[in-house]
Amino acid sequence: MVALLHLPGVTARRLRDTLARFGSPAGAWEAIAAGTAGDSMGEWTEAASRLDPSELMRGLESSGIGVVLLGEPAYPESLAEIHDPPYGLFFRGSLPGDRACVSIVGSRKATAYGLEAARWLAEGLAAEGVCVVSGAAYGIDSAAHEGALAAGGHTCAVLGCGVDVVYPRRNSALFHRIAAAGCIVSEYAPGTEPRNYQFPARNRIIAGMSAATIVVEASERSGALLTADFALAEDREVLAVPGQIFSSNSAGTHGLLRSGAGVACSAHDVLAELDIEACSPFSASGTAVGASLAAGEKALLEALEGGPCDVEELCSRAGMSAAAAGAAMSSLEIRGLVKRGAGGRFQKCRPR
Q1: What pLDDT shows up at residue 329?
Q2: What are phi and psi of 191, to 5 degrees?
Q3: Is residue 153 within 8 Å of residue 283, measured between CB atoms?
Q4: FRET label pair with 159: which of 93, 152, 224, 320, CA 20 to 30 Å apart?
Q5: What are phi and psi of 334, to 5 degrees?
Q6: H/E run at residue 186
Q7: In DSSP terms, which residues pair with 346 in a beta bridge?
Q8: Could you read off the pLDDT of 13-26 as tens digits, one per residue?
Q9: H/E stretch holding 213
Q10: Which whole-number Å values give the CA distances from 289 to 11, 115, 240, 350, 351, in the listed order?
Q11: How far apart are CA 146 and CA 171, in angstroms?
């Protein structure tokens, strides 16, 4: 089966048809390798002449790449239940096992608000022992993985290429961290380069591994909505994070909410949908930060309710001097209550 998964252009559907024709992986491989499978499989016969199943397995082991096949105990149970599960998963790291899984997906061109929301939700879910699943792309995906890692939790990156191929390239450091603290998985054989058609296919795995899918930010044509569609087709929970009404990045999420998706304003909302009792303070839905704040700090946080702004605008909103506002903002930033973004503009964060 592993050798079949290494054949060029193999898909779950084509592999299913091949197995139905020849009765077993061994029978299919022998026919393909012997050249008796027919002219339509000539490309596979040529590839099979260069492949040795035993050498493939030894090569995977020496590279630190595991493989689990459909029907084996370690194969993710929720993924096995979808109508088109992959016949095998290649992985680096450790699979989620018995952990509940929740996927967090969204725009690659995320806003500062979307990135912060994805991190916060992932951190709260990971603190409860939930595995956070996403696609390791720029934007919301990366923020979700980062949040789970920050909480010391388990996260799973599902790729549209081989598990030994870093894509996007700039996420190399994140990939290494995910493999060390969670897992990187793919239905594609190691060495498979990313191709456009492979990413929609991997979205079914993201949704299939998860009891719930959260869409943080998505335009009307976002691939994240495809993941939500896969989740709905498999009768899984779909939730969306409300966004800014003037942002095109929120058009897709608001469409989901109008269609009846659950509202995800905190990890607690997601846990409630899954009937998981929250134990960690990270998953709390409250936004109060307590009485430990000075009056000036409270005034600045209230000023940031209107959206990100620089120190000069903050001084105007809060009625404070630049010196006082600067000192107070530094204190808030150290405590993780505000975050400095592009152009020196500050944004309010969730309490930690």
Answers
A1: 87
A2: 90, -10
A3: no
A4: 152
A5: -60, -35
A6: strand 183-186
A7: 309, 340
A8: 899 999 999 999 99
A9: strand 212-215
A10: 51, 21, 25, 9, 6
A11: 11
Beta carbons within 8 Å of 279's beta carbon, 6+ residues apart: 128
Q: How far apart are CA 56 and CA 51, in angstroms?
A: 7
CATH class belonging to 295-348:
mainly alpha
pLDDT at position 333, please? 85
Phi, psi dihedral angles at 170 (to 5 degrees): -70, -10
Nearest to 11 by CA among 71, 85, 81: 85
N- to C-terminal Cα separation, the chain: 47
Question: Which structure tokens are listed for 81?
Answer: 């239940």
Cα 311 to Cα 346: distance, rounded to the nearest angstrom: 8
Q: What is the pLDDT of residue 284?
A: 52
**Dihedral (CA of 328, 330, 333, 339) sign:** positive
- Name the β-bridge partners of 212: 102, 237
The per-residue pLDDT for range 38-50, each reduced to its tens digit, is 888 999 999 999 9
Planar angle of CA 45, 89, 110, nearest 5 degrees: 115
Rg (CA), the chain: 23
Using DSSP, state whether 333 is helix, strand or coil: helix
pLDDT-based confidence at residue 296 (cuts at 50, 70, 90): confident
Widest distance between CA atoms in the chain: 83
Buried b (16+ CB within 10 A) or exposed e, 78-98: bbeebeebbbbbbbbbebbee
Asked if the model's pLDDT at residue 304 lies above 70, the reply is yes
Residue 285: the pLDDT is: 47
Residue 107 near residue 222, CB atoms below 8 Å: yes
For 101-283, give the CATH class: alpha beta
